[in-house]
Design goal:
Blueprint: H1 2-24, E1 34-53, E2 61-66, E3 69-82, E4 85-96, E5 102-112, E6 120-131, E7 149-163, E8 166-188, E9 195-218
Antiparallel strand pairs: 1-2, 1-3, 1-9, 3-4, 4-5, 5-6, 6-7, 7-8, 8-9
Length: 219
């Protein structure tokens, strides 16, 4: 009788344990998994620009603020380096009202949380990169499209898997663009018409808060 009881317990353990492990293990975002993301971002920006004359001739100071409409198109490829943690290069095309179209290149770290028995993966995002975005400003005539604007990137959201390898992604995203630019231009004296060069130091800070809707292809 004792032998039968022990055999029954061993039988239950062998058959139940794999089922529990299968339920609690991740279906996606395991080490080595790849994720391809495409998304659109709509929101508002909080822009602040300060200008100060660096010469002694006719010194001035100017401060400008605005709330531009934000529309971004993003594409990214993520590689899961350890369970749940993904490294993701991201490319943004920034279509910002009253400013030139610009590009941002970012490097993100994303942690994807696992909810057992659910096809929902909450995630947190943190990253940094560079952009050629400079706020539309009346001294901004020397933008050479250099990636000299730093971009801090943070976000949180959900990935909802609706079929094998496909997921809808919802995200609240914050980006902060920070740049300081020296602009040279000619100033003409109205009496002598002699050209003089002035230098303006432009310091711009733009924070953008957007709601992102996209989809992911999971491998």
């Amino acid at each position: 009788m004792k032998t039968i009881i022990i055999s029954f317990i061993v039988f239950l353990f062998v058959n139940i344990y794999p089922q529990v492990s299968e339920i609690e293990s991740r279906s996606y975002f395991n080490q080595g998994d790849i994720e391809v993301n495409f998304s659109t971002n709509i929101g508002v920006g909080f822009q602040s620009v300060e200008s100060s004359n660096s010469t002694d001739y006719n010194p001035d100071y100017y401060q400008y603020g605005d709330r531009p409409f934000i529309f971004l198109i993003s594409a990214a490829i993520g590689v899961c380096i350890i369970e749940g943690l993904t490294v993701e290069p991201e490319l943004d095309i920034n279509l910002i009202t009253d400013a030139e179209v610009s590009t941002s290149i970012l490097a993100n770290f994303i942690y994807n949380f696992n909810i057992p028995r659910k096809k929902i993966y909450p995630f947190l995002k943190l990253g940094y990169g560079f952009s050629n975005y400079i706020p539309d400003y009346y001294y901004n005539s020397s933008n050479d499209n250099s990636l000299n604007t730093g971009v801090f990137n943070a976000g949180a959201g959900l990935k909802i898997v609706y079929s094998s390898g496909m997921a809808i992604k919802l995200e609240i995203n914050y980006k902060q663009y920070n740049s300081t630019t020296s602009v040279n231009y000619y100033y003409y004296n109205e009496y002598t018409y002699e050209g003089e060069t002035r230098v303006e130091d432009l310091s711009s800070l733009v924070g953008t808060l957007t709601l992102s809707l996209g989809y992911s292809i999971l491998f």
